[in-house]
Amino acid sequence: MDVSKLVMIIISAVFVNNFILSRFLGLCPFIGVSKETKPAFSMGVAVTFVMTSASVITWIVYRYILQPNNITYLRTVSFILVIAVFVQLVEMVVRKTNPALFRALGIYLPLITTNCAVMGVALLNNEMFFEAGHPLAGSFILSLVQGLAAGAGFTLAILLMSGIRERFELMDMPEAMKGLPVTFITASLMSLAFLGFAGFKL
Amino acid sequence: MKLNNFWLEFKKGIIVENPTFALVLGLCPTLAVSNTVQNALGMGIAATFVLLGSNMIISALRRFLPPAIRIPCYIVIIAAFVTMVELFMKAYLPALDKALGIFVPLIVVNCIVLGRAEAFANKNKVIDSIADALGIGAGFTLALIIIATIRESLGAGLGVLMMIMAPGALLTLGFLIGAVNWYRIIKKKRALELGCASCAKCKE
After folding, report:
1. Section A107-112 average pLDDT
2. Where does the chain cross the membrane (chain B) (predicted)?
3. What is the domain extent for residue A187?
4. I need a surface site. Which of A11, A58, A145, A160 has the fewest CB within 10 A?
5. Structural domain boundaries in chain B
6. Is residue A1 one of the residues assigned to a domain?
7. What residues of A are in the B interface, CB distance below 8 Å?
8. Is residue A133 scored above 80 in pLDDT?
């Protein structure tokens, strides 16, 4: 497997097909937790961690449990269950081992279970790196890298958005546009800017 | 009497508790598949089916599901219905399946479905839960179709390509929610201007 493929996946997941701004995955936390920079960054880190781990775990589940037993139609059920259990587990471990980190990330972890970015990256890996049910060469590494890069793209978008929204607090704007509407319109402009990366030939 | 109740539960989901414009839930599919009206309708019907099935089963089982693990139970029930939709679409509507892509299996993490299970089906009778599911499903479908109509007519019709791509979805939703807010503010202002004297409710 060559490095250029990895680089392509990273650039694609972070910029060209940014999970939030171009694929529309994980909008709830993007809108909900982007009011201030600090919690936004914590959310980004938590999501990146869960996305990377979910990519790895769902790859293992698909390759070694679903495929050999010919039960790939259970993909949706098994992926969501595995992700939910994993998030629960992480929450328990973090609470026991690192109370400070738990206080910073704790409230976001349960929200991540129903974050479509996590389920989305698992399904996308599955669709991109398994052809007709057979894994492509190096699909494990590719999945891992795509999970990590997608998380990085998520963090980038939520950080940018929180920086802009902090400024909004001080601005004078029509009452009706305050809050959600202006956030969406800003996201639209950001998305337009990210669309510029689409011309990137790799 | 009963029919009246059913109608009330149904109606509530379309306007007062519209999942997209009032509750602002389930945004990812709303934005991602609203580039054409056809996709919007397909997604709306698929989500309504899942909502109906899961609400019905969860409401019927509400006395048997142990409270401590109720959320995982909901997820398994919802996932079962999503799998049905997935297999049905793959078999009979392959073009739609391709257009909606991973957003079909992603109905499983749609907060509208889980939200109705926890907020409504968990506490109400089966028949009310069916009305609720149909109402919320119709509200979701309607919102999707409104957004898709705007996007498709501007993007594919007038050739403003941006509107059928990602930025157009965010822009449309932003302005639509802004319009809903504006309407609410005007209504509130008018009520304040007229005061209590003109309001029949206060006189009762």
Report:
1. 71
2. 42-61, 73-93, 99-117, 129-150, 156-183
3. 6-194
4. A11
5. 3-177
6. no
7. 21-28, 31, 73-77, 80-81, 84, 113-116, 119-120, 123-124, 127, 174-185, 187-189, 191-192, 195
8. no
